[in-house]
Amino acid sequence: MSRRRLLLGGGATLAGGSLAGAAATLALSEPGPDTASVVTAEAKGAQVVPFYGNHQAGIATGAQAHARFLALDLKPGADRSHVQRLLRLLTDDAAKLTAGRAPLAGNDPEIPALPSRLTVTFGFGPGLFDAIGRGDHCPDVIRNLPAFATDRLEDRWSGGDVLLQVCSDDAVPLSYALRRLVRDSRDLASVRWCQTGFNPARDSEPAGTTPRNLMGQRDGTANPASDTEDFGATVWSDEPGWLRGGSMLVFRRIRMDVDTWDDLGRPAKEMATARKLSDGSPVTGGAEKDDPDTAAVDGQGFPVVAAEAHVVRATARTPTERMLRRGFSYDDGPDPDGKPDCGLLFAAYQKDAVASFVPVQKRLAESDAMNTWTTHVGSAAFAVPPGCTEGEYIGEALVG
Amino acid sequence: MPQYQSKRLVLAATTLSALAMVTALSACAGGSSTAATSAASDVKAVGGEITSTGADSLTVVDPWVKAADTKAGMTAVFGALENTGTTDVTVQSAKTSASSTTELHEMVMVDGSMVMQKKEGGFVVKAGEKHELAPGGDHVMVLDLTKPIEAGDQVTVRLTLDDGSTEDFTALAKTTSAGEEKYDDTDGME
């Protein structure tokens, strides 16, 4: 009985969801043996995000359940031809792996066969621009992201010449993709750091639900929807030149003091952000997407929303301050004393970090209630080239 | 028809020790075929007479070449030869941008050892079928490397078919130790 309910529940979800192209068959539960109640649908593992296009995949793509961010450093003495070879190899690998195919020279087609929306996204750090002799093409904010008063940055989580952002709803094809990409980069680059993140499981909540972070907050409420004009205006560079159709990524490793946070009373937790933990709606009422009413006062005339509440400080004050926050939680496990090591891999995509991340983070470093429980321990900034077509490699317009 | 030697080459784990023997073989490098381009073997008439060549129905899928240095002096090109036509095609010879010497090879088991030898008659790709070139199997052998092939390099390859038509493609160089394993045929192996 419980089994039948489970199967029908699955069918109902499928019927309600977007099933474009998926072959779903639903054998309705007529009176008869349980075995007749069968719901089959094309496995989600087979879902593919196209690699080629005007923009790189993995940005407008809804955040997957798993992510690894990996920074490479080019080997000393690397020049333009080395970078060309590296990008040619990695682009070819990424195109095949994201399509659910083994890379060239790989003979294990079963492992990548179900990519589960695997995406591979490339970013370029200052070292790549210098290696190809085009240091002047590196946006200044990527080379010289300002320091912020609250930063406690560690080298082991910071910097890098080339970023690989590899995401999938399934950690198995993701693992294979990353190992093959890194293997093919080994002749030309070394691994600077690798950070592993996750989101709630795919479909644990209805599509479009803002995911929760490890503090229990809905994180990403202000993100523009991927199919809107707003999204393009927020994320894609429209500068003439090689970066057009690309973006800028500011990547921060933000450690959470969850021990202290866990013991904090719920009113204090909600005051810190000005949003309710339950559904992310403002403490002053309304729906998740609404802004808190900063003018609201309580019975004694005191403001309901604290001036230093995170949302008040972090909300874009001009359209150009908007960003796409495409973050993932991290949890590297407790230390020998049982202290947790977890937090947020904050990945913000934006047209121009000078106008978005920098002013917002400056404001947060000056005052943000959340600073009591969060510390930025890693930082890296990358120019994100536009997408490419078959036969090209990522960044070809820059590297040549 | 080119002459084929039946001399066999034992593939060493590090291909290095085989270099001398390979060099000895290289005298019979496959050159370009002299067959006429207007091969009668694959003529289709569809609303009029259209002459198509073997190369028209041959596609090379996922070509790659194993990165190699000049010390090794040789390497191989792999990929899948796909015949979308209705007639068998035969790859008779190959040339590459990496060296002046190229041979078509196969791997066969002789007395418990995998040995590499020239493929008699070339690679026959049956109509509608796929012929894999892979480490441990058939491959295009590139000999007499005078400069290294580094990972990420591109090597252009021209296959010449038995009707004289040619198929060009670009192979991406990858670093791998594939095909270098040794099989121990002593008792106890399952």
UniProtKB/TrEMBL annotation, chain A:
The keyword Cell inner membrane does not apply. Keywords: Heme, Iron, Metal-binding, Oxidoreductase, Peroxidase, Signal. This is Dyp-type peroxidase. Belongs to the DyP-type peroxidase family. Residues 1-20 form the signal peptide. It holds the Pfam family Dyp_perox_N. It comes from Kineosporia mesophila. Residues 198-234, 272-294 are annotated as: Disordered. Residues 56-199 form the Dyp-type peroxidase N-terminal domain. The keyword DNA-binding does not apply. Its cofactor is heme b. InterPro entries: Dimeric_a/b-barrel (IPR011008), Dyp_perox_C (IPR048328), Dyp_perox_N (IPR048327), Dyp_peroxidase (IPR006314), TAT_signal (IPR006311). Residues 210-388 form the Dyp-type peroxidase C-terminal domain. One of its GO terms (molecular function) is peroxidase activity.
UniProtKB/TrEMBL annotation, chain B:
InterPro entries: LpqE-like, Lxx211020-like, PCuAC_sf. Keywords: Signal. It comes from the Bacteria. Residues 1-29 form the signal peptide. Transmembrane segments: none annotated. PANTHER family: BLR7088 PROTEIN, COPPER CHAPERONE PCU(A)C. This is Copper chaperone PCu(A)C.
